[in-house]
Amino acid sequence: MQNIMILNGPNLNLLGTREPETYGFETLSDVEELCREAAASLGYGIEFHQSNHEGVLVDLIHEAGRKVKSGELLGVVFNPAAFTHTSVALLDAIKGADVPVVEVHISNVHARESFRHHSYISAAAIGIVVGMGVQGYVLGMQGLVSKLTK
Predict the structure, then answer these.
(1) Which one is catalytic: 44, 49, 105, 137?
(2) CA quadruple 147, 35, 51, 64: dihedral positive or negative?
(3) Range of the domain at 37
(4) 11 is in an annotated binding site
(5) Is 92 annotated as a binding residue?
């Protein structure tokens, strides 16, 4: 069975307790279970990761690129969190690894502080889901499958 990699950036390990009025009450474990169930309904497994460290995320993107080329992985659903607005390294990793990525944000970043309106990741993403809560991960997986298997 082919997998979809779900990547989560900094502070997403605090879901459920960090600013629940913005991010909701679901935990990262809840998100993982949601993704596992949604992927199974689409005929895929998942690889689920979270890191507060940019370099770890870069390494996981490189790994994803290798797995896409070998056929083990369809692509990546990526919530880069705060690195969205700061990380050229993640943009370069996605482009360099030639890995299909759907960018996901739980909150509507465009309705928040102006510094959150720019995403480095969007330039390399095949799609973006913003402001749909944790359901955005499911929409991201559905979009990834739809775009890459037609």
Answers:
(1) 105
(2) negative
(3) 3-148
(4) no
(5) yes
